[in-house]
Amino acid sequence: MEARISLMELLEGIQDPRHARGKRHPLPALLNLAVVAMLAGMTSYEAIVQYGKERGWDFLKLLGFTTRKGLCKATYSRVFRRIDVVEFEARVGAWIRGRLGPCDAPHLAIDGKTARGSRDGGTPGAHLVSAYAPDVKAVLAQLRVDAKTNEHKAALELLGVLPLAGKVVTGDAMFTHRDVCAAVIEPGGDYLLPVKENQPTLARDIAAEFAGPGAGLSPPPGGAA
């Protein structure tokens, strides 16, 4: 389990790309509120801001805010367009993993998807490969990839940063490769991956194994009694 470092400590390390002029709120405070609000089910900039305002100034001060003025959804829109989102996601993932015990997330699901609403005109949507823990309903790690063809490589990177001992990793047939299986087994994990038409030789070998006679059903030496 990773060292227990606070969310505020982790987010303070993210570089603030904003100009000093006109900057009202510390970047860690804005990001702290975003994470806490999203954990509470808020899914838009407006909902994040409203969540903070409804809980009052004492709550906002605990998150690092120094003024109650000027908190609005436009601020969040500007911030998330400029910060290193990959680094932000990685730090939040590390914070979540640091709060899990060895038995808290026995199942990890590796999956690749295009983020809903991320496509902008001719610009393709953001494609993500994530490691999701259903038992705690949390994404423990996530990587952006250029295209679906890079999911295999991204999965290997994710498996390299996750605590896999005692875990069962699942995924679709795209991840059914020797190196992915090895990356799970070597640190003490196990896997359950499907085999489809993309690996015809392996599929035939598995089918042949299950088509053979069951244990104890073979005829005795010398033929039938």
Description:
The protein has 225 residues and is α/β, with parallel strands linked by helices. It has 2 domains: 7-93; 101-211, Nucleotidyltransferase, domain 5, CATH 3.30.420. It is 40% helix and 13% strand. The protein is built from 8 helices and 5 strands. The protein has helices at residues 7-11, 27-39, 45-62, 73-82, 85-97, 151-161, 178-185, 200-211; strands at residues 107-114, 127-133, 138-145, 168-170, 190-192. A 5-stranded mixed beta sheet has the order 3-2-1-4-5. Helix 2 crosses helix 3 (45-62), helix 3 crosses helix 4 (73-82) and helix 6 (151-161) packs parallel to helix 7 (178-185). The termini are far apart.
What descriptors fit this protein?
single chain, 225 residues, alpha/beta, Nucleotidyltransferase, domain 5, 2 domains, 5-stranded mixed beta sheet, 8 helices, 13% strand, elongated
